[in-house]
Design goal:
It is a single chain. With 285 residues, the protein is of the alpha+beta class. The N terminus is likely disordered. The protein is 31% helix and 18% strand. The protein starts with 30 loop residues before the first helix and ends in a 5-residue tail after the last helix. The protein has 2 domains: 82 residues, 434 Repressor (Amino-terminal Domain), CATH 1.10.260; 126 residues, Umud Fragment, subunit A (Ribbon), CATH 2.10.109.10. The longest helix has 22 residues. It is elongated, with a radius of gyration of 34 Å.
């Protein structure tokens, strides 16, 4: 039989009639007595049936429901089990988060009947199903490298560059999927497209460095790092207040990679999603 929802009107105190959901007139019966009667009748169970299932007389149940007595505290778990309710429901309390319901308790009772070997099999099956469930619900993440030093600070020797970063996990997007690392912009030389403090996505070009003229890249020139537009023997700013950086073939210009876009902060994965992802992909740690 479906359960009736029992709600307390917002902002009002007092006793609620369990059958109508409306405020009830004060009753001389203890709340526990009323609720035993209510849940027994809802289950379509006679007093003598409830009494037989918990090991008392029908007269004892009648006395409880009429307020002439109360059940022994040791009988309360059995009353809840037979009526398929929780202790919180019996006393009209809110169930704590994560508490087991009647179906879960019934499942646990059945598990207790299994042999140790069969319990182990069920335990392993549950582990497998939980992993499958996590895999189905866990978001797909991309692991990139985030460099603490911004694109205007010196790295020193470019050969030390690869050891400067830390992992960052991002939700996939077209720009994220074709990127390898993240830098922070420092300064206004690339405004209005790139603002001071923006995190930019960069696709590394480690093997055969190449960038088409007009594309935006991340560079190291001498001991300084830059985000600039690649020009004809120049690195150019978008802000006209800054003059182009000229260089010659004999100068050392290290191309970090192509700038693929600006990282939206909402694309940075939450700590919860990262933890779930790493449980399924420990090799990414």
């Amino acid at each position: 039989m479906p359960r009736r929802s029992i709600e307390r009107p917002a902002g009002k105190a007092g006793i609620i009639d369990m059958k109508t959901g409306r405020p009830a007139a004060p009753s001389s019966l203890p709340l526990l007595c009323e609720r035993i009667r209510f849940f027994r009748e809802r289950a379509g169970m006679e007093q003598k049936v409830l009494a037989g299932k918990i090991g008392v007389t029908a007269n004892a149940v009648s006395n409880w429901e009429n307020g002439r007595g109360r059940p022994d505290i040791n009988l309360l778990p059995d009353i809840c089990r037979v009526l398929e309710i929780s202790m919180e429901e019996l006393f009209g309390l809110e169930a704590p988060a994560g508490s087991a319901g009647p179906e879960e308790l019934a499942f646990l009772d059945r598990c207790r009947l299994l042999t140790p070997g069969h319990r182990l099999a069920v335990d392993r099956m549950v582990d497998t199903l939980l992993k499958i469930q996590d895999a189905e619900t866990c978001p797909s993440l991309r692991r990139l490298i985030s460099y603490r030093k911004s694109l205007s600070a010196g790295f020193g020797d470019p050969t030390e560059f690869d050891g400067e970063g830390e992992p960052i996990f991002l939700y996939p997007s077209r720009e994220v999927d074709k990127s390898d690392c993240v830098f922070t912009v420092n300064g206004d030389s690339m405004e209005p497209r790139f603002q001071d403090g923006d995190m930019v996505l960069v696709s590394r070009i480690p093997d055969a460095p190449s960038l088409q003229q007009g594309e935006v890249g991340a560079f190291i020139v001498g001991n300084e790092t830059y985000i600039k537009v690649y020009g004809d023997q120049t690195l150019e700013s978008l802000n006209p207040a800054y003059k182009p950086l000229h260089f010659h073939e004999t100068e050392s210009v290290y191309l970090i990679g192509r700038v693929t876009g600006i990282l939206d902060p909402s694309q940075v994965a939450s700590r919860e999603d990262v933890d779930r992802y790493l449980l399924l992909h420990p090799e990414e740690v």
